[in-house]
Design the sequence.
């Protein structure tokens, strides 16, 4: 039976939380086109640049579940408002950072604010929209449209600002949004909301945070070849130990911080996997596409952002469409077919000519944005439709964690993959010294740096070789991404076989 006591302010509340969520998502990708400018301005090393980009999703992945369960205990409204203030302050600190280390620290503070906001947004939507059909549309607008389009619009915003201002401006745009959203949330959201009983165990939260962060870092460091196995393996063992202790405490506690029984529901597990894989593929493809457009095609940051507008536009309409289609045809079919079409689009993009895009490339980019947006919407519907309202924060945090882990690991895995293919395909000039040749093979950014130190003719030859190698690597990445999404569609088809929105009964 559908709910009849509907909040008359529910669509205004949706607008408020969507605006709160937008800067969080934009900040995941806004730096993609800013990397060359930022590297030069702060004299950042390649390792520092990696940390500047990755510290945000890495820390957020560890903080989301504790913050989501905290929100269930004390109220989504309180945690959301605190998160908005922290995010606004961190944005100012990031914008005016004088060193790479300062920027890394500011990005870490941004992650704390973002981790407080994201699960609250989904939890508030779950509590506000009791009607399952309306909730599907609301989740489509928030998670599908803002989640996908926000990530896609990040490079465009970054490119536009870099065209006229300094790199720090990409963070300052968060401030006016926070100044508008915070009062909206303060007045629109009810101070009286149902909360989950029990206390929030700070020690258990620390176990989860350090366990997740150290595990993801070890994985990233190991895959990236930045650390030796003598460091990575003990860190993996340490992180698994912490997470094991956390799980045992949850299972033995009469009032656990996190209800692990949520993982026993196939729909929730399928939703988390969808969020993780789709977000990872989208982030990895967008980052490498931005690099391809700037380093190989030689577009400006703004031009690169405009090139990816079809992804943004299609993703913006994909969320509501996903909610509508799920109501009409069922979540299982919509989730499966959206992923199949996304796989076809990614594979098609690998054979496309970015030098002469015509209408084919924009169409393919739009298809990727549309289908992955529908897929992310489907993941949210599967998760939030499988839990009661009082567990909305915890469930939302699980989905958000999957999204953040997917984003961080997607950038890392695709980055490592790209680096390996690029290095193996780069044909350096025969007269280049062994030291410079090794440095040039690290990345296309390093190739350009080495080329700038060489005579014009030799430098030009190295850059041309780098362009060929990077394009080859990009083709392989897109093919791999398409295959991964295709496999995911099969997994989701079987996992959602018995899905039913328990809150619509």
Sequence:
């Amino acid at each position: 039976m559908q709910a009849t006591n509907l909040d008359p302010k529910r669509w205004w509340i949706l607008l408020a939380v969507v605006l709160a969520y937008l800067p969080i998502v934009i900040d995941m990708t806004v730096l993609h086109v800013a990397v060359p400018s930022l590297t030069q301005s702060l004299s950042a090393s390649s390792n520092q640049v990696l940390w500047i980009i990755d510290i945000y999703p890495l820390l957020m992945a560890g903080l989301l579940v504790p913050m989501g369960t905290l929100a269930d205990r004390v109220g989504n409204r309180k945690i959301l408002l605190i998160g908005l203030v922290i995010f606004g302050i961190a944005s100012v600190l990031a914008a005016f950072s004088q060193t790479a280390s300062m920027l890394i620290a500011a990005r870490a503070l941004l992650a704390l604010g973002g981790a407080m906001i994201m699960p609250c947004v989904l939890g508030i939507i779950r509590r506000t929209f009791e009607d399952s059909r309306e909730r599907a549309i609301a989740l489509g607008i928030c998670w599908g449209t803002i989640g996908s389009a926000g990530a896609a619009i990040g490079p465009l915003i970054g490119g536009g600002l870099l065209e006229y201002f300094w790199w720090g401006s990409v963070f300052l745009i968060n401030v006016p949004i926070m100044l508008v959203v915070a009062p909206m949330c303060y007045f629109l959201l009810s101070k009286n909301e149902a909360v989950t009983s029990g206390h929030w165990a700070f020690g258990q939260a620390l176990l989860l945070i350090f366990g997740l962060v150290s595990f993801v870092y070890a994985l990233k460091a190991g895959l990236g070849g930045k650390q030796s196995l003598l460091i990575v393996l003990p860190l993996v063992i340490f992180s698994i130990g912490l997470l094991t202790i956390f799980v045992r405490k949850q299972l033995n506690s009469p009032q656990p911080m996190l209800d692990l029984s949520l993982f026993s529901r196939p729909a929730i597990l399928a939703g988390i996997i969808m969020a993780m894989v789709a977000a990872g593929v989208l982030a990895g493809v967008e980052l490498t596409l931005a690099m391809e457009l700037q380093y190989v095609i030689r577009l400006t940051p703004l031009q690169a952002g405009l090139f990816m507008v079809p992804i943004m536009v299609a993703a913006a309409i994909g969320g509501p469409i996903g909610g509508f289609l799920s109501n009409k045809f069922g979540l299982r079919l919509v989730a499966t077919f959206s992923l199949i079409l996304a796989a076809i689009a990614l594979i098609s993009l690998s054979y496309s000519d970015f030098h002469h895009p015509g209408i084919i490339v924009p169409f393919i980019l739009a298809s990727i944005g549309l289908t992955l947006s529908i897929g992310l919407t489907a993941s949210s519907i599967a998760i939030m439709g499988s839990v009661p309202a009082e567990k909305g924060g915890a469930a939302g945090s699980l989905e958000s964690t999957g999204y953040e882990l997917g984003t961080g690991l997607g950038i890392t895995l695709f980055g490592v993959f790209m680096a390996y293919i690029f290095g193996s395909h780069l044909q350096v000039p025969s007269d280049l010294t062994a030291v410079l040749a090794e440095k040039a093979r690290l990345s296309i950014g390093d190739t350009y740096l080495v080329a700038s130190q060489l005579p014009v003719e030799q430098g030009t030859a190295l850059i041309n070789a780098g362009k060929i190698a990077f394009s080859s690597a990009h083709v392989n990445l897109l093919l791999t991404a398409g295959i991964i999404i295709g496999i995911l569609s099969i997994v989701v088809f079987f996992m959602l076989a018995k899905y039913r929105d328990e809150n619509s009964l």
Residues 10-189+257-422+471-504 form a domain with the Growth Hormone; Chain: A; fold (CATH 1.20.1250.20). The chain has two domains: 10-189+257-422+471-504, 201-256.
